[in-house]
Design brief:
Blueprint: H1 2-19, H2 28-45, H3 49-67, H4 73-90, H5 94-111
Helix pairs in contact: 2-3, 2-5, 3-4, 3-5, 4-5
């Protein structure tokens, strides 16, 4: 009986290890990051750099939380783009910030 329990535990561990990148699909933090990044794009397109920054910061917080659960290069790229959007939006460059936020949405959608 002990060998069966050990085998089952090893099998479950192997499945979890192999499937961890797949867990990005349906990750609530990725979904929230996408939703806020999309709002950042919408507001940035209207020239509202300050509101873009607020949504990009919310998106970034969720993206960082997702990084604790998921390893994915698109998630990392999305984080970088959100950081650039926040930087440019903070300087009042709504157009450039919007482009970075849109790029973040594109990358985050590849995770999700």
């Amino acid at each position: 009986m002990g060998k069966r329990v050990l085998f089952a535990a090893m099998l479950i561990g192997a499945v979890m290890l192999v499937s961890s990148p797949v867990l990005a699909d349906g990750n609530p933090h990725v979904a929230e990051a996408i939703a806020h990044a999309e709002q950042a794009v919408d507001h940035g397109g209207q020239g509202h750099a300050g509101v873009l920054v607020e949504h990009a910061q919310e998106a970034l917080g969720h993206a960082h939380a997702a990084q604790k659960e998921v390893t994915n290069p698109h998630l990392d790229a999305g984080v970088e783009e959100l950081e650039k959007a926040i930087d440019h939006g903070g300087q009042g460059h709504a157009g450039v910030a919007t482009k970075h936020a849109a790029s973040a949405v594109m990358h985050l959608n590849e995770v999700h």
